[in-house]
Every structure is written in C-alpha cells, then in structure tokens.
Amino acid sequence: MKELLKVSGLKKYFPITSGILSRVSNYVKAVDGVDLTVGRGETLGLVGESGCGKTTLGKTIIKLHEPTEGEIFFEDKDITNLSASRMRPVRKRMQIVFQDPYGSLNPKMKVEDIVAEGLVIHGHSSGAERKAAVGETLHTVGLREDALSRYPHEFSGGQRQRIAIARAIALKPDFIVCDEPISALDVSVQAQIINLFIELQERLGLTYLFISHDLRVVKHISDRVAVMYLGKIIELAASKELYENPLHPYTKVLISSVPVADPQRKRETTLLKGDVPSPINPPEGCAFHPRCPIAVAKCSREEPELRDAGSGHMVACHLA
Amino acid sequence: MSETRSVGYWGSVWEKFKRDRFALAALVIIIFLFGLAVFQNFLAGNKPIVMKYEGSYYFPVLFHYPEFFQTNFKELAKELPEGDFAVFPPVRYSPTENDLLSILVPPSSDHLFGTDDRGRDVLSRMIHGARISLSIGFIAVGISAVIGIILGGIAGYYGGKTDFIVSRLFEVMMTFPVFFLILTILAFRDPSIYNIMIVIGVTSWTGVARLIRGEFLRLRRYAYVDAAIALGGNDARVMSKHMLPNALTPVLVDCTFGIAGAILVESALSFLGFGVPPPDPSWGDILSQSQRYVDFAWWLVLFPGAAIFLTVTAFNLVGEGFRNAVDPKFTAER
Amino acid sequence: MNSALEIKDLRVSFSSRGRKLEVVSGVSLTVPQGKIVGVVGESGCGKTVTALSVMRLIPEPPGSIDAGRIIFDDANLLEYSERDMRSVRGNRISMIFQEPISSLNPVFTVGDQIGEALRTHLKISKREERDKVIELLKLVGIPAPERRMKNYPHEMSGGMSQRVMIAMALACSPEVLIADEPTTALDVTIQAGILKLIDDLRVKMGMAVLLITHDLGIVAEVADKVYVMYAGKVVEDAATADLFADPKHPYTVGLLHSIPDLRDSKEKLDAIPGVVPSPGDFPVGCRFQDRCPLVIDKCRAEEPPLAEHAPGHLSACWRANDVELKV
After folding, report:
1. Hey, is the C-beta of C157 within 8 angstroms of any chain B C-beta?
2. Which residues 234-263 of chain C have a CB within 8 Å of chain A?
3. Domain at C3-92+172-322: CATH code
4. B242-266: per-residue pLDDT in tens?
5. Do the chains contact at B332 and C62, CB–CB below 8 Å?
6. Residue A23 host element (H or E)
7. Which of A272, C69, C137, C299 could be bridged to C142 by S-S, CB 3.0 to 4.6 A?
8. How much is the pLDDT for C79?
C-alpha cells in the first residue's frame, strides 16, 4: 500500500503561562514524539482514554495546531512549516469531522452555505454549479435536498453529523481525520454513521484517521489500530491482530474493560491502579509503569522504544 | 420539526421580547422618535407640504424652487388667489425661525410648547432635535462598535501576545474619564455635530471591545471555527463569517445602552455649551437656555428634559428587554 | 422476593410553548431488594425522567407527574409532602448522576460534602462524622482517604469524583440507589472499576440498584433484570440472560445489532433506520413502527400491550414471537 501520510517525531506542547506577564512556566506534553504512517485507502484507528492526546494528534496532523517538533509529510511533501497560503491547496485534500455535532456547525449559516463553504474558499465553480455540487454531496451522505435552506438547529444529532461529513467531503479530499465522530450520538444512530463512513470509503476511496475512545467501534472500522497513552503510541498492529493478541499490558486492560453485550461471557476485568498521570510531568521511564500490573525496575528508568515484535506488530514495552 | 418550521433565531428573540410590556412600550416610543426624525419637515416647518400656485403644484418641503427663493410662504399663503391653496405642516414654524414679537411665550394654542428667548417655537425645535439626538446616538455608537469589534476581535482571535498588548490598550483607555476627555478634545475643535459623533465614538469603544474579545476567545474553541480553518479559510474570512455573526448579539445589546449613553452625553455637552452649534436645534441646547429663565419659563425645562429622560429610558428598557430575550437563561418558560 | 421500589403506570409530561408533551407514558417497573435492575434506552426515551420522578426532582412547572404510583416502603412517594420527601431523598433513596464533576460543589472539600450528607440525616458528632467520611472514602476505593477528604473537587479526576459521588450517595446506607448513566462520562478502564464497585456495594450493603444506561454491554455485565424503554414506554422486560439470549422486541434486536462486536470487523452494521420520534409526534399504534423491519398493518392501527411471551419475559410487540436475533 502506498503511503499517503507520514508523521515522524511529532510533538505538540502547550505552554502553561502564569503571572501577570504571562511567563511560560511549564508545558502540557499532549503529543510527545509520535511516528505514524497511513496508507492510501486505509483506515488507521487511534484509541486511547481522555487526555491521552489523540485529538491533539489528529488536529496537529492537519495543522490545526502548529507542531512543536517533528515532521508531517502528505504524499511525500513536507507540510510541517508551510505558510497559511501555501497550505491552502493542501487543506483541500485533508479534512476533519468533529465529535460534537452541535458545536461543529455554525448556527448562523444555512446547511447549503455550510457545505458550500470549502467550494467558495477555493473558488470552485459558479453559484449554480456549486448548488448542484452541494445537493449531490447531501445526497451522498443520505440527506434530502430540502435540507439545503434550513439551519443546523432544525436537525437531530445524527443528521447534523451527516451535514458535517458532507462539509468534509464536498472538496473531494483524500484524507479525513474523524475525531470521535460518533461518541455524542445515540447507539442506533452511531451504527448508521459508522455505516456511512464505511460506505463513503468504498465509494470515494477515502483514507481515514479514526479517533475514538470506543474500542468496539475502532476495531470495527479500522484496518490497523494504534493505541495511545500519555502522548505516545504504545502499540500499533493490524486490527484483528491487536485484539486477538495484544502485547502491551495497557492494551490488554483496555480490551478487557470493554463491556460485552453477552451475559454468558463473563469476562475477567483487570482493574488499573490509580489515574492517568498528568501530561505536564509524565512519569520517568515508561509512562505506564506506575499503573502497570507487571512493571519491573527497568520500566521506571528506561523508556521503551516502539519496536517491531514480529510481522509489523509494533509495541513499546520492555516485557512484551 | 415540520409544523414549528423555523421561526429562526430572531423570530424566537422577538417572541420573548414581546412578553416584556415595558420594553415593548419603550420600543413604540423609539419608533415614534424615528417617525419624528424621518418626517420632521412634514411635521414642523414654515414651508407648505403641497401648494397650488397659479395653476401649478409645488412641494416646497421636498424640493427647492429657485422662483420661491427667500419667499415667506406664510405671507404668500395669505394672498393666494381663488382655487390655489397651500397645506402647511401641523406645526407651522421652522426651528430656526425667529419671531421677536413673541419671545418666551408660554404654551398656548399657537405655540403648543411655548417659545424660547429668540421667539423660536419649542415644539418645532424639539421635533427637529430628535433627528440630531438619534443620529448622534446611532452614528457615535456605530463608530465605537466598529473600533471595538476590530480591536476586540484581533485580541480574542489571535490571543497570546497580541491579546496581551491590545488588552492593555483597553485598560489604558478605560482609565480616562471619558466625559472630560470629550470636553477637552472639543475645546480644541469646532463643536460641529460630526465632531461630536466622532469624539463620542472614538472614546467609548472599550465596552464593545471587551465583549467581542471575550466572545471570540470562547468561539475560538468551537469546532466549527476549526472546521472553517481546515477548509482553508483565511483569518479575515473565519473572523467575519464564522465568528462575528455568533458574537454580535451581546454587542447589539450593549449598543442599545450605548445609544442612550451617547444621547445623554450630547445633551450634557449642549447644556454646557460644547454641543451642537446654534442655530441647529438640540434638546440639550433648549435646556441650557432655560438656565437663565428657570424661575418662570418652566416649559423650557419640562419639555426637553422629559424628552431626554424618555428617550434615554426607552433605549435602556429596550436594551434590557433585548438582553433578557437573547439570554439563554431566560429561555425557559416563565 | 420483596421489591424495594415499584413504579406503577407512571405518566410524566412537560409543557413547551403551550403544548403538553408526554415523555413518560405509563411506565411500570419493579426493583427487587438486593438486585440490580437495568433500564436501557436512547436519549429521549424517558429513562432519566422516570428516575427523577422517583426522587421527585422533576421541575414543576414545566414538568408534571400526571398519573401513577411510586411504591416505596408500602407508601406512595407521589403523595409525600416535600418535607417527608426530604427525609427519603439522599437518606433512603439516593441518586448518582452522569456528570460527577458538575454535581459536586466546587467551593467545599469533598470531606465537607460527604459530611453534609451525613449531617442532614443523622445526628452525629464531629468526630464520628470524620471517621464515617474516611470509612466511606475507603469503601469506594479512594486511596489515602485522610488526605483526599481535604481535596476540592477540581483536584480530583473524573473517576475519583464519581467515587466521591457514590460515597455521598451511600453515606446514609440507602435502601435504593438510582444510578443515572454513572459511567458514561468516564473512560472504559475507570468504568469497569465503578461498575464493580456498585456491584460489590450492593452485595455488601444489600441495596437495590436502578441502573440507567444506554449501553447494553453494561447491562449485560451487572444487571439481573432489564427494562428496555423506547419513546416513553417500556417495550421489553426480562431477566438479563433471557433478554440477550432471546430478545422479543425488534427494537432490542436493533440495539444489539448496532453495537459493533470485538469479533467481527468492517462490515456494515444492521443499523436501525431513522430517528426516535419526539414527544408530540408519536404515531398512532406502536411507537417503533416507522423504524421496525417487522412492521405490519396492525402496528399502525393498534398499540401493542406489554404482554408475557415467555415466563417472566414481557414484550410490547404484535410480532414478539417472530423476533429473531441474527447470529
């Protein structure tokens, strides 16, 4: 598979300021050295718990945040330090769908203008052509034409998410960051939107970075899955492989924690001690060691590298 | 969704606004004032609205006719031949028309609100003063809103160092006692109506700027703003199309109060003799004349004073009603 | 088996723009002593309103409880005065909410807030109160309780705050605990711990738990009995094992098919089409008719009653016996 996106050594630190002169006193290390590749037409799942930096990673990759360090290549082109105007043609090809279907649509704009916004910015076609293109896009995501002249507040959460998806695909991008796109929706609607994502990928040849805290969903939609903990990727493998043969102790806990809708299959839940440490001062060595059920002395001293444990199954653990 | 087919945002604001009786009454007063301001020449003046003279029709209020240059229409009307006629406004005096034979006449059927010390009709001056008061209120607030939106928008959108610098500018500006600043500036400039508007405008933008800054800081975190950036929109477009419309409501509320404030400042300036230069009529100016005759010329105090009071109160009530109507906390059924 | 709490034919409505909209239409459910009963449904199905009605926390107006009985301790809670209700609330029936952080008061330490719950209902000394707070924090699995009780809510993580909320709810050893989406705002690894905690406490203290959730997985893990709600009504009522093995309502089947399983991948899910009708737009007949794959003419004419189709297994569907779970 040809790679579409490559990220190496990516870091995003947010400064914490204090005092009346806003001096920087520390940094939140939201993304702390991530290497990734996403192949064309692939879905790479990204799972992790709240605060692990997965959303920041998604936003930094499409440069909604300026990276602190590292490089981002889109189709072998370094886009890390492109200026806003040089970035514009690249933006056309990488889009994002957000979690909150209520906050992601401008309440003062009609659906038609929301979906057409990208076409207008990139100077596509005349008004009539644009209108036709918007109508067609809405049809693709399963909305009727009469949605055009209505405002976002007239739609349900699921329909709003369809509008947000329409906005993202209107420019015919190659790559879409899906940032928890279904977490705010009801179960029955979640399934509809998952199906829509799968369908769009087949029809339009899209590549996804699919971010979610829900392992069931990520497993379902992804070809490969990366697990993130405190700003770092700690395991990355083909979807099936990761679930059947998790190597990192954190991944094992995550998988065992997912509730299964089958009362016959009482699972063995491993409970973790403590909470996720603060990304301001992450623990020395392996960031997971204070909560790890199998940690040894080495884990608190040396940070494990993300290494290939055989046939492309990457893991960052001394003991795996 | 089907039968409650979009009343829209402003529709629902209006629904809630209507429930406040005082605000509604105040809105009627403001609309009435606008009526006065727009139709002032049809309501008060010494030119006929329509006149038939020697077989032709004339509209001296609307158009200027060289053949009637410096004609006294009232004298002319008295000598009109059979078949010709002239229809005058209800108040037959222009605001600048001196009548030295009727100085300081108390209210009567001829001069409903009396006359001032130059024999000018007070009612006519007040009707014409409405336009001046309203235009000062609106234009001054318009100027301050534009300045405030630009500076506040820049501070809130870019944040960081930019915000730091612009915010300090707000604070410096706020430490000035605005009224005395205006007095000082006007002392060095001609107190024309335009200068007054500009001076009030450029000295009173901090409120709007702070509001917009706060709204922009809040909106900057909204996903639709990120989405607009991800689509490739430049800063100006993101700010003007995606953020400003969503930040404007509290500013509009603030502006309503601002108009009341500006009208009050203008009246105070006129009262102190720094306001609208004579012979242009202004409510504050009429009031300032009353100083000398306050012991007997009560009509010079009462009518302009009441007009200022009513207008300022009306704008404040409308502002308050408007604020409650757009405040989500008042959305619940009361 | 004795029931700790019984809701009978509850009807609750809210008025909006002069229209009265019924959001709970005749819900009956029973929570047996010492058991966990799950109520499953999507947003707007009336599950939270049902729970708030038990606590008599429905804001009136715009809400109003129009009919029904809530039987607790052989009395109807709906007939209690506000004063009587206060002695029940937080004392004999407690509730925990979805958002632990916004449910705690930011200006008091967590120790103060748990102590407050104790002081309100029990007459105890300062010393006893302190000991009890520490005991409760220990019970809900908060390490170093002596130190933690002096913390403010913002110094605690989401999982810790939810543990504090549970400690508050348990302060007076309630007979019934109502948990409204207690883990929805939490991460999965924390969720598992909270669910285990609720289950352990039920065993230890013998309370009955009414667990409200949208996640069938959670119900499968901890509940003994399940009520499935849709559009203000109970559509299915069964023992947990029966519900998952042999669901008798097409909505339940739809929900089960909507959850991706960890075993399969990248296939289309059998999603339920359409959206939940909103109160006021409920169709005549069965409220699920427009989204149902098994719909027949009768469904559009007549509302199916909640009837027993297998021992202890009730379903409100005309075609309950044709409902099948796809394997």
Report:
1. no
2. 240-241, 244-245, 254-262
3. 3.40.50.300
4. 999 888 888 888 898 899 889 898 8
5. yes
6. strand A23-39
7. C137
8. 87
